[in-house]
Amino acid sequence: MIPFASSRGHGQDLATHLQKEFDNEYIEVAEISGAIADDLHGAFAEWEAQASALTRCENYLYSLSINPDQRTNGPMSRAQYDDYIARVEQSLGLAGQPRAVVFHIKSEREHCHVVWSRIDMVQEKAIHLSYDREKLMMVTRQFAREHDLTLAPGYHREPGQEQRKSRQLSLYEKHQQDSTGLTKEQRKAQVTEAWQQSDSPLAFVQALADSGYVLATGKRPYVVIDLY
Question: Which of 22, 33, 98, 223 could form a disulfide with 117 if both were Cys (CB 3.0 to 4.6 A apart)?
């Protein structure tokens, strides 16, 4: 299981993407909380309006994709999804925030999307999500241990081990790791997971996009670009 997450705006585009029947065999909007509207477009529009009225935050949403490795561990139960989502919320300071939970089935593989509003209505500011990728990795490792799940290579090192290895990295790789919160091995694991779960080249490109990457051409045949 590998979590893909990012802060983002353009909630209407995201709502449309999450409900594309062409891309998914099954779509279930399992939960919308903290909004008057009972649909994704309406809820995201409310959260955008709150961000505009109270803050200058443009990336007012935090989007998380939970992709279980069903070939290795089998499908996750809804109780396991709930447990993982609660752990993420506590770790990132998003507990109690408005959120939407959407389940997809594609190529007989179920996965889950969770979208939170980052806007704290009481404090009238956006919740700061520092080192969110590192925190997600820690949550994922702990969750996997307690639920007896096998993780992809690159997710088994503890933070201290990652730091020791980083001393042997090039300056460029060290800069990338510090900027993104991901080691080179973890990034490879994300891309590999996206490839293994895709049934076509276009599906692979979309899986990379869902995890915050853009596949592009460069001096090499293909390069992967992230938001950094």
Answer: 98
β-strand pairing of 119-120 with 109-117: unpaired
**Distance separating alpha carbons of residues 170 and 207, to the nearest angstrom:** 28
Which region, left, alpha or beta, applies to residue 185 given φ > 0 means left and ψ of -120 to 50 means alpha? alpha
Cβ within 8 Å of residue 123, ≥6 positions away: none
**Per-residue confidence (pLDDT) for residue 170, from 0 to 100:** 60
Report how far residue 21's alpha carbon sits from residue 26's, in angstroms, rounded to the nearest whole number. 7
Report pLDDT for 94.
98
Give the residue carrying structure tokens 């994709």. Answer: 65
Q: Give the model confidence (pLDDT) of 211-228 as tens digits.
A: 888 888 877 678 888 876
HSE toward the beta carbon, residue 132, CA cutoff 13 A: 18
Longest CA–CA span in the chain (Å) reads 52
pTM value surpassing 0.85: no
Tokens coding 133: 């990728």
